[in-house]
Design goal:
Blueprint: H1 2-23, H2 30-64, H3 80-83, H4 89-94, H5 107-117, H6 127-168, H7 173-233
Length: 235
């Protein structure tokens, strides 16, 4: 009985030792290991993206703080003759009464047109002849203005094409923003010139109507004078 008890105790002790040994063995889980590797790769990619974003931000900040030199492009658009090729409304109106010299940049062109197309120079101060002179001056003024508008439009087209080409090849964000602002400014100036041209066109049309009214009134005055003369002859 004692012997059997000793054997059982020995077997039990052996089993306990084996169990303890197995409890110290690390179990390898391939699924958990793969997930850990995937998480590490994802974290590395995120870190690389953050580094790239920081680098891009630094590049953008540097470009925004660098002078793009956009104002040196398309010098045609900054020429004084293009910025102020239209006369003021007062000079425009006075030009039809012998004031072609007041037209600013248009003065020389208008005077040349008037001189080249003049066929008669009145000697007396007859109102009819004065009206004829005014019409001739007005025609020279309007033709000079039309030529100036055409030349300005051509110069602007060349300049805007240069800015558009520069915009497509802009090297950084600052250059692109400056070019876009420059183009918008030029468009605003074009819109302003269009308003001025519209005002001058309205003025020219009104001058024509005034002249037509003067002609009608002159005809009526001449008719009344002839009737009065006719009546006087039979009294």
């Amino acid at each position: 009985m004692t012997l059997h008890r000793s054997v059982w105790l020995a077997i039990l002790g052996s089993l306990m030792l084996v169990g303890a040994a197995h409890s110290q063995i690390i179990v390898y889980d391939p699924t958990a290991y793969a997930k850990l590797v995937q998480e590490a790769e994802t974290a590395l990619q995120q870190l690389q993206q953050m580094q790239k974003a920081v680098a891009n931000g630094q590049t953008l900040l540097t470009s925004l703080n660098t002078n793009s030199g956009v104002n040196s492009l398309a010098p045609l658009l900054s020429a004084p003759a293009l910025r102020d090729f239209l006369p003021t409304i007062n000079a425009y109106v006075s030009a039809e009464h012998g004031g072609l010299s007041q037209l600013g940049v248009l003065a020389s062109s208008a005077q040349t047109i008037r001189s080249q197309n003049r066929l008669y120079t009145p000697q007396a101060s007859d109102p009819l002849e004065a009206d004829g002179e005014a019409q001739g001056d007005r025609a020279a003024r309007d033709l000079a203005a039309g030529q100036a508008v055409s030349a300005a439009a051509q110069s602007r087209l060349v300049g805007l094409q240069q800015l558009q080409t520069a915009l497509t090849t802009a090297g950084d964000a600052r250059a692109a923003l400056d070019l876009q602002a420059r183009i918008q400014a030029e468009q605003a100036m074009i819109a302003n010139d269009q308003m001025r041209l519209q005002g001058l066109a309205i003025t020219s049309a009104a001058e024509d109507r005034v002249q037509q009214q003067r002609d009608r009134e002159r005809m009526e005055a001449d008719r009344d004078a002839r009737i009065a003369l006719y009546k006087a002859a039979f009294q």
